[in-house]
């Protein structure tokens, strides 16, 4: 299957550069994947598509302020470091801009010097393994010195770090936000629960691969990045009860969907407590076992996320829905509007 099949033209002005002041003020495009009918709604109308006995699944990962600006201790050369994954205590896989300036043994100083790092291994494509040195608590150092690692298509600075976090973000570890969840407020979640809908969480720490383009011609040649996930016993029980009682499981975001599909595909469509690393790659044709509905944002052309939603609905209906969203000036990508795919 050719990657070009998932391409579409997106006017640059539709790429949302900043979040709306009201999280729930987004538009909501609703696609019925059976009839291919499209309806234009407001995000607050999402509640009307849920019924008592359904289950809403949220990804409770929290984004690390993982972009650090420092300088080489010996020369003062400016460097930008992006934390990707902690390999062991205080040792991180990172991407370093101007990595050619960094060699094994190079010391990098951040801020007032309360945080430093030493390169212990060089990797391909700007990758470096850094050993961090500090006093106190590492996450507190990050909060003080780090910036949110916004996607490269967002050019504006974010004045409030919390607007790139969901209101239910809890488990530290992501390099990017699960952006479909940015539309929710505590008030809306309470209304959903009051309607008799179960609300559960999974954890999937979003990796940098979510920003990486697909650089192969054939879909099957693409290698997905692995991401750490957790699904608790309580969440598994609620999901199984929802299925048994005829309710629908609605995933909030592709990260929640990939977590549920990882577990369900390993357990004949049921859910068991599970933790590990997933590199599941979902593209047409794929038989979903874990979800009945999907709330998501609008994704990049030729991305693995467009492929996932095209597997859940169909490629033709997704492309048509995206064309209609463009015609109606929907806002795209991380801070953009939302899309609900149901049957």
Can you describe this structure?
The protein is globular. It starts with 26 loop residues before the first strand and ends with a strand. The chain folds into 2 domains: 3-63 and 160-342, QueA-like; 67-145, QueA-like (Thrombin, subunit H, Beta Barrel), CATH 2.40.10.240. Helix 5 (304-312) crosses helix 6. The strands form 3 sheets. Strands 2-1-17-16-14-3-12-13-15 form a 9-stranded mixed β-sheet. It has a 6-stranded antiparallel barrel with strand order 5-6-7-10-9-8. The model has no long low-confidence stretch (mean pLDDT 94). Helices cover 19% and strands 29% of the residues. It is of the alpha/beta class. 39% of the residues are buried. The longest helix has 13 residues, at 254-266. It has 6 helices and 17 strands. It has helices spanning 138-145, 186-194, 233-244, 254-266, 304-312, 315-327, and strands at 27-32, 38-42, 55-59, 61-63, 67-72, 78-88, 91-97, 107-110, 115-122, 127-134, 171-174, 198-204, 227-231, 249-252, 274-278, 293-297, 338-342.
């Amino acid at each position: 299957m050719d990657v070009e099949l998932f391409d579409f033209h997106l006017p640059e002005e539709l790429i949302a550069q900043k979040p709306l002041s009201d999280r729930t003020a987004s538009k909501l495009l609703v696609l019925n994947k059976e009839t291919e009918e499209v309806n234009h709604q407001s995000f607050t109308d999402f509640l009307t598509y849920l019924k008592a006995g359904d289950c809403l699944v949220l990804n409770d990962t929290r984004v690390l302020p993982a972009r650090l600006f420092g300088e080489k201790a010996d020369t003062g050369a400016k460097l930008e470091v992006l934390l990707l994954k902690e390999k062991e205590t205080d040792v991180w896989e990172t991407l370093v801009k101007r990595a050619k300036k960094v060699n094994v043994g190079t010391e990098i100083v951040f801020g007032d010097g309360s945080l430093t790092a030493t390169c212990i291994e060089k990797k391909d494509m700007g990758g470096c393994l850094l050993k961090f040195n500090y006093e106190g608590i590492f996450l507190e150092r990050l909060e003080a010195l780090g910036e949110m690692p916004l996607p490269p298509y967002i050019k504006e600075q974010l004045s409030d770090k919390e607007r790139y976090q969901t209101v239910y973000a809890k488990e530290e570890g992501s390099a990017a936000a699960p952006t479909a969840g940015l539309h929710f407020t505590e008030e809306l979640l309470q209304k959903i629960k009051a309607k008799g809908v179960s609300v559960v969480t999974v954890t999937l720490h979003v990796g940098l691969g979510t920003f990486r383009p697909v650089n192969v011609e054939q879909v099957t040649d693409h290698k997905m990045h692995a991401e750490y996930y957790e699904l608790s016993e309580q969440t598994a029980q609620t999901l199984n009860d929802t299925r048994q009682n005829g309710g629908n499981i609605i995933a909030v975001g592709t990260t929640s969907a990939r977590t549920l599909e990882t577990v369900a595909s390993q357990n004949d469509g049921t859910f068991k407590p599970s933790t590990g690393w997933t590199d599941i790659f979902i593209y047409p044709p794929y038989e979903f076992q874990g979800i009945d509905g999907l709330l998501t944002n609008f994704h990049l052309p030729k991305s693995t996320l467009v492929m996932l939603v095209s597997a859940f609905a169909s490629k033709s209906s997704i492309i048509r829905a995206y064309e209609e969203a463009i015609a109606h000036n929907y806002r795209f990508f991380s801070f953009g509007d939302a899309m609900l795919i149901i049957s």
